[in-house]
């Protein structure tokens, strides 16, 4: 079998007589000169790295947990073929742990004057903007003895959006909304705020809904049907302070709140209501206003993608003042915050009347399912102590929720998996009773 490249050269050097390896200038030159010539030729034949042209294309956004493909186009303007290994560097959170080496490294050959494409597949593990770092290219000569190496900055940003896992609940909530809106055979009787139509009375209907004038004009008793009002204003207020940083399961409370807010926004926009977003701790972190029904959900997702919890105490007075400026007329203000006693009693309760006297207020809080499991634990001394601590925490949480209800606030306290559908149900209940 014929030997080529580095293998042939080393074999040739190994076949030299033993005497030639003696420390003499003639021996040194006899061994090193061929190797130096081979390296020089290999270096000369390796394509230059600095002159390469690199451009990017591909995905600019992806939902958390999904993949994003970013294509790198390498153009070789030189007269020598490019044989190279390439590393496309991104932040560590751009891949699942342990997959970075395989995903970021590529081998390619580019003939003179041509271009080739390589695709880096990202699978981000965190929300936010992921920005490409540098591209490192190592160009080899035909013998593989010598290389040229250089780096290029090729900017690109992939925005990692919230996963919106609660969208699986949207079809069932829309079906309930259609029932409320009178577009199916089931109609809301005697409630609501906007007249829809007349129909014949059936046993069980609210007698207050009977239209006596219409009844006098026909032989059957006629009742009014109602549908919820449209074009109501809903303000989603996300508390991004320190309590939102607490992890429940595998994600911060803020992520669960955002997921519930997205389901409510999708449902409310289909109901014909206007939805705005305010994210606040000690200053405004995000504000989305005046979007159309078709644009509101993409706008909210894009704004939420870069939000991170801030390790500061939320300024409840500033949050209230900003919410009142954002919603000057009657609106449903949905406040996503913690039910911890201290922040509520010292921060929110003193300023809550400013909100409730003008707006309908709904508070949504993420409960930790581990606390419920602790409260049910028995069998050992440690389990009993844990159960007692969990029961005390639950009692304080219920007491705080009761305080808020006495101020006219609707409270939804549920685990991350249950918060989004429970919040949607609370919104539909407000629609049904005409409180929105």
Automatic annotation (TrEMBL):
Renumbered residue ranges of the record's region Disordered: 94-116
Domain DUF58 residue range list: 198-372
InterPro entries: DUF58 (IPR002881)
Protein name in UniProt: DUF58 domain-containing protein
Lineage: Bacteria, Bacillati, Actinomycetota, Actinomycetes, Kitasatosporales
């Amino acid at each position: 079998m014929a030997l080529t490249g580095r293998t042939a050269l080393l074999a040739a050097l190994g076949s030299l007589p033993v005497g030639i390896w003696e420390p003499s200038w003639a021996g040194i030159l006899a061994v090193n000169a061929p190797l130096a010539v081979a390296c020089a030729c290999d270096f000369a034949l390796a394509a230059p790295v600095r002159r390469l042209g690199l451009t990017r294309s591909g995905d600019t956004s992806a939902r958390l947990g999904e993949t994003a493909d970013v294509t790198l186009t390498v153009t070789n303007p030189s007269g020598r073929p490019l044989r190279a290994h390439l590393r496309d560097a991104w932040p560590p959170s751009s891949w699942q742990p342990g997959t970075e080496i395989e995903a970021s490294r590529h081998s390619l050959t580019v003939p003179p004057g041509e271009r080739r494409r390589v695709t880096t597949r990202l699978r981000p593990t965190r929300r936010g903007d992921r920005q490409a770092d540098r591209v490192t290219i190592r160009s080899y000569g035909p013998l593989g003895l010598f290389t040229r190496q250089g780096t290029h900055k090729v900017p690109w940003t992939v925005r990692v959006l919230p996963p919106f896992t609660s969208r699986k609940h949207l079809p069932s909530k829309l079906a309930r909304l259609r029932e409320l809106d009178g577009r199916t055979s089931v109609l809301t009787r005697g409630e609501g705020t906007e007249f829809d139509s007349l129909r014949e009375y059936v046993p069980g209907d609210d007698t207050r809904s009977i239209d006596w004038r219409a009844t006098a004009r026909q032989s059957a008793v006629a009742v009014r049907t109602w549908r919820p009002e449209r074009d109501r204003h809903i303000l989603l207020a996300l508390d991004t302070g320190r309590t939102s940083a607490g992890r429940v399961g595998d994600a911060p409370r803020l992520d669960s709140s955002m997921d519930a807010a997205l389901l409510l926004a999708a449902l409310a926009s289909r109901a014909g209501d206007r939805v705005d977003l305010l994210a606040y701790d000690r200053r405004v972190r995000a504000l989305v206003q005046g979007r159309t029904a078709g644009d509101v959900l993409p706008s909210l997702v894009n704004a939420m993608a870069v939000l991170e919890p801030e390790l500061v105490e939320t300024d409840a007075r500033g949050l209230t003042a900003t919410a009142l400026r954002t919603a000057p007329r009657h609106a449903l203000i949905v406040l996503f915050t913690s039910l911890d006693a201290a922040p509520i009693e010292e921060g929110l309760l003193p300023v809550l009347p400013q909100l409730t006297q003008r707006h309908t207020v709904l508070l949504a809080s993420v409960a930790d399912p581990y606390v419920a499991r602790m409260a049910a634990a028995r069998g050992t001394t440690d389990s009993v102590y844990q159960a007692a601590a969990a029961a005390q925490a639950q009692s304080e949480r219920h007491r705080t929720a009761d305080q808020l209800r006495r101020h006219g606030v609707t409270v939804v306290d549920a685990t991350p998996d249950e918060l989004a559908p429970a919040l949607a149900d609370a919104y539909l209940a407000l629609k049904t009773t005409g409180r929105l």
